Amino acid sequence: MDQVRLFALGGLDEDGKNMYVVEVGESIFVIEAGLKYPESTDQLGIERIIPDFKYLVENQHRIQAIFISHGHDDVMAALPNLLRHVKAPVYSTPLTAMLIEEMLKKEGLRDIRVHRVKRNSSFKIAGIAVRTFGMTQSIADGFGLAIETPQGSIVYTSEYIVDYDIHNDAFSCDITALAEIGKRGVLALMTESVGADREGHSAPHHRITEFVEPAFEDAEGRILITTYHQNLYRIIEIIELANKYNRKVIFYDDDLRAILKAVEKMGYYRMPIGLEIPKAKFTNDLKDVVVIVSGSGDHVFRRMHKVALGEDAMLRLNSQDTVVIASPVVPGTEREATNMENELYKENVRVVTLDRRKVYSMHASIEDLKMMLYLFKPTYYMPIKGEYRQLVSNANIALNMGYHADKILVLDNGQIAKFENGILKSTADQLTLEDVLIDGNENLDVSGMVLRDREILSTDGAIIVGIVVNHKTKEVIGGPDVQSRGVIYLKDADHIVKEIGNIIEKTVEDAVKEKRYENMAVRMEAKDRIVKYVLKETGKRPMILPAIVEINVTE
C-alpha cells in the first residue's frame, strides 16, 4: 500500500500564506499557493510574504497538480512566484481560473495551462481519483476537494460557512455530496481554524445588510463604502442596497469592475440595468450615489486614507458624506486601517464601522466545524489555516466530539505526517522552512539581500569609508574619509574614525606590497577588518561600505 504524507509549507500558526501538500506514493498534489501581509514593525518595506518552495522545486518532477480553491490572495497570490520555478498544471473553477490567468498575464508568465473544473465533479490525475465539492465562501466558485488514496480520502474543505439561505448556485454547498465522501472513508480532514473560537454558526452573522441599511436610510449625501474586492458576497449586498434605495453605484477600483464583468459573463450575478455610473462620468457634485472603494490587503485602507487627506485625483470628501468601513481589519493591515479611520474623523464626515463581534467574516464557526466532522467522519483531523491558538481551539472541538488526542494533528509548517495502512506512523520528520520576503518585483532581489541590508540599516546604521589611489602605482593619494550614519557621533569618536581610516589604508598598502591588489578583493578584505573592529569598539554590526577610487595621475 502506498505511503501517504501530509504537510503544510505555510498556513499553520499564521493567518495567510496557505500551502498544503498531499503525497500519495510518488505523486505530489499541491493545494493553494497564498501570501500573507507583514504584521510587525521590523518588516518595513516588505510588501508580502510567501511560502518557501525549496521542497517543491527539488521534487517538481513528481508534482501532478496544483489546486487553487478560490480567488483570495491568501490562497492564490503566490502562484506566479511558484510557477516561475515549478512547471505544473493548475486546476481551479472558471472564475478563479480567469483571475489566475489575469494574474499570470500581469506577471509576464506564458504557457501555463489552467484547467477548469466544475465545483462538483470527479476526475483522475495520474491515476488518482479527485472529487471536488462546492463550498460557500465570500467569493463565487469556491470549492473543497477529496484526494482518494488506498488508505482513504484526504479531504480539504478550504474556508467556508454553512448557510441554508443561499440561493445562488455559485455560492452554494451541496451537503449531500460531503456526506457521500464521508461514507466512502476519510483518512484525514483538513479544516480551517480562523473562526474556531466563535460560538454557533457563522450564518446569518456574515451578512452586513441589516447593519449597513440604516446608513442608507439616514445618509443626506453620498455613501462611500470600503470593502475588499475579493469579497464578492459582501459587494453584491451593497449593490442590492443601492438599488433598493435608488442610488447609483460607482466602482473606484478597476480590478473589482473586471471581476464583476467576469461574474456577469459566467451568469453568477447580474447588476441591475442602469445602476452603474462609469468612472468617466463621475463628478464630486453627485449626491444620490454609492462609491465602492475596494482593494486587496491594506490597499483598500491606503486608498480611503488618501481620499481623507484630500490627495486623491477622483474623490474629495465633504461634510455630507457617510463613510462605511465594511472591510474588516485583518493581520498586516492594522496600521493602515487606524491611520485611515483617524483621518476620516478629522474630516468631520459620518463614519460607520461594522462591529466585528456582530458581523462575522465568512469563516467557519464552532457549529460549522462540528458539521464537517459529523459529515466526513475522518479517522484523523488536522486543523489548518490559523494562528496556533486557533488551531488549538479547532482541535478542542474535535476532542469535545469524542476524538482522542492521538487522532488530532496540530502540526507546524514543514512537519510531515506519515500514514501507512490507514494508521499514522510518524510526525517526526521536519522540513526546514524560511519565510520568503518579497518587496516589489522579486526578480530584483531573488536572494533577499536588499531586505537584509534594509534591516541592518534600520538597526545598526552604516559607515562609509573612502580612499583615493593612483591607478598606475596604487599609491594612496587622497583620504581616507569616513562618514557614519546611525552608528557613532563622529566628534565624540575621533579615535574610532581614525582607526577605520587606518584599516582601509593599511589593507591597500599590504595588498600592493604583496602584489595581490584587486579593487573588489581589497574592499571586501577591508570591510571584514572594519566590521570586526567596530563590533569590538561599539558592540554594533553596521553596514560597512568601503570605496576605493582609482584615478589616473598626469605627471
From TrEMBL:
KW Hydrolase (keyword) present: yes
Molecular function, one GO term: RNA binding
InterPro entries xrefs: Metallo-B-lactamas (IPR001279), RibonucZ/Hydroxyglut_hydro (IPR036866), RNase_J (IPR004613), RNase_J_2 (IPR042173), RNase_J_b_CASP (IPR055132), RNase_J_C (IPR041636)
Designated name of the protein: RNase J family beta-CASP ribonuclease
Pfam families: Lactamase_B, RNase_J_b_CASP, RNase_J_C
Keywords, sorted A to Z: Cytoplasm, Exonuclease, Hydrolase, Nuclease, RNA-binding
Organism: Holdemania massiliensis
Domain Metallo-beta-lactamase: 16-201
Origin superkingdom: Bacteria
